[in-house]
Structure formats: structure tokens, C-alpha cells
Amino acid sequence: MIKWLLLEEAVEKDVINEPLWTVLMALLIILCVAPWIFVIFRYGIFRKLRVRFILPNNEELPPQYLKKNAEIILPEPKEYLGYKFCGWYLDSEFEYEYIPMPMPDKNLKLYGKYEKINFEEEELPQK
Hints:
alpha+beta, Immunoglobulin-like, 4-stranded mixed beta sheet
């Protein structure tokens, strides 16, 4: 009660510093709005997820940035002399093959698998 009376006297005497009051109000507004801005950008419509395409020797193709449930368009694989491209996999051990699906709600890494081409004498063209 005493503090309230002192505050009323300060207002009557115009002791409260006006710029300080506006700064305090601005900080209060920021503290109230900031969590909502974080939620919108973290989980809302502005969030984009990344798909990375990793090739042998840790080479990478340009990533794609997509929204959740968007269609993933697989890039053309890089060609290596003496190797053939076998597909995209979800892990670096090539156990789980990637099956086309909408973009999940987390970032994704796809690993390109290549196998060495064995040229047998029967497959070589005869001259």
C-alpha cells in the first residue's frame, strides 16, 4: 500500500522518466510475443526441412529444402567410370533402400550406392 501511494505521488510530481517507461513497456511486449514467434518459425508454416544427397567419398549433391509432406524429387546421380548407380539408401551401410515418400517432419540424408561393373570377356563387343 505504501509503495502504491509513493507511485501515485511520483506520477503526480511527474518524477517517472518517460523514456524508461516506454523501454520497459517495449520489453514487456517482446517477452510476451517472442515465444509465439519462436513457435511459428520452429513448427509453423515457415519451417523448411533439408534433404542431403551423399555420394561416395563424402561428395554431396546440392540439398533440397522442402516443407513437410512435400514431394522429394531425386536428383540425377553422378556418373563414375567403371561403376553403376544402384539407388538411394537411408543409411550409410546401404541396408534400408529409400522408397519414394512425402517429406517427413525431420531432416533427411540419402546415400547413393554404387557397384563396380565387372566386364567379362563375353560382354565385350567383338570386332
